[in-house]
Specification:
The chain has 73 residues and is of the alpha+beta class. Helix content is 19%, strand content 30%.
Length: 73
């Protein structure tokens, strides 16, 4: 049986409260943009909130908690 090869570079997934993948982003994406997008998803789809971001690193996923800059509102 052939198993899929994991990606060589990182990426970030946005998932809903059930863990379903909603969107994906390249590793070098701006974290603040992703957090703003999650806020919009929470408002647009409240039954799927809260949305969260997860970064792929070698060996598994880690949750992204911190924004980098100011709140863009």
């Amino acid at each position: 049986m052939n198993h899929p090869t994991p990606p060589n570079s990182g990426f970030i997934l946005v998932v809903d409260r059930d863990g379903d993948i909603v969107e994906n982003y390249p590793e070098n994406s701006m974290i603040d943009v992703i957090f703003r997008r999650m806020e919009l998803l929470d408002k647009e789809f409240p039954s799927d909130s809260p949305h969260s971001a997860w970064r792929w690193v070698t060996g598994g996923f880690t949750r992204v908690f911190d924004r980098i800059g100011e709140d863009p509102k």
